[in-house]
Amino acid sequence: MPRPHAPRTRVSTYLSDWMPLGDEPYARAGYYAGGYNAGYLTGVDKIAFPVDTKTVSSAVLSPARANAGGFANSGVAGYVAGGNSPDFSSIQKITFPADSTSIISATLTTAKNACFAMANSGVAGYVAGGYDSNYSATVDKITFPADTKTTLGTGLTTATINASPFADSGVAGYFAGGDASGTVTSSITKYTFSADTRSTLSATLSAAKLNLAGYANSGVAGYISGGGNPRVDTTDKIAFPADTKTTLSAVLTEAVSECKGMADTGVAGYIGAGTNTATANLDRVDKITFPSDTKSTLSATLTVSGGSKSAFADCGVF
Question: N or C: which terminus of the chain has fewer CB atoms within 10 Å of its end residue's CB?
């Protein structure tokens, strides 16, 4: 697919990797923010696409956040919503590409952690579920670019924490697995963006699990990697638009939970951080290259190991 370019003030359509005179390539990157390792974390790591080098972003989370929902309006900004240290309802915005930060005026309906988020890039982000003194079924919607909040009339089928989100931008968003009011599930909920209607896929995860990494090759497939109950090293793939499930032959470096996923759409997905079966904190990032779905491991590692980070990606405007 064509490489994304920096946002422009005039209408243009790119049909190939050729760039008109005067344009510069857009600096695409994925982000891992916050998390927990002997305390709540404020740092944000940045993985530059496609070279996969890591730098520490100038962005700093305030307050420190773990178990928050991460999503992005690609080419514009990333968001980290909710989380605990203790639980709060605020949403931090990281504006691309300078990584300047702000707290938006809109807040989640309740202060909560263990929520999960995905986005219809260019339109809105969705923050679902979580724990706010009880399991939550609420789905809040943050509409771009004004960053106003509404709450969907149709919430999750079951109040859920620690599910895996991914999206087919312009079509639908998905929430897979998680702890549904005390029962770990394999079900996958779908929200069709045109009207924010909810359905449940006939396809299910290969096992019931929570704290798993979700990401998507938009327009092609969504992926759900790792997860616990117990920890696994497998990746399920949901092919768009039929929403059929297969399981990749490639496996992660080891079984991992509390990992997070993001993707350079059209190129690769990334599964970072988490804990292994010995509950050791991990700083590793595995990579699933599209469309072959082969696995490699980045030489770059995250600055601070641990789980419960938030992840999102800036793939430019698409």
Answer: N
Tell me whether residue 2 is in a domain: no
In a domain, 65, yes or no: yes
> Which amino acid is located at 116 in the chain?
F
Query: For residue range 184-221, what is the model confidence (pLDDT) as tens digits?
Result: 999 999 999 999 999 999 999 999 999 999 999 999 99
Query: Domain with 121 in it: what CATH number?
Result: 2.120.10.80
CB atoms closer than 10 angstroms to residue 48: 15
pLDDT on residue 318? 60
β-bridge partners, 49: none
Instruction: Judge whether 8 lies within some domain.
Output: no
Beta-carbon contacts of 153 under 8 Å, excluding residues fewer than 6 positions away, are: none
Number of domains in the chain: 1
Q: Is residue 185 part of a domain?
A: yes
Tokens of residue 186, six digits:
């394999």
- The reported pLDDT for the residue numbered 158 is 98
Tell me how far apart the 2 most distant CA atoms of the chain are, in Å. Answer: 57
Question: Would you list the DSSP string of 131-194?
Answer: BSSSB---EEEEETTTTEEEE-SS--SS-EES-EEEEETTTEEEEE--EETTEE---EEEEETT
pTM for this entry: 0.92
Coil, helix or strand at residue 304: coil
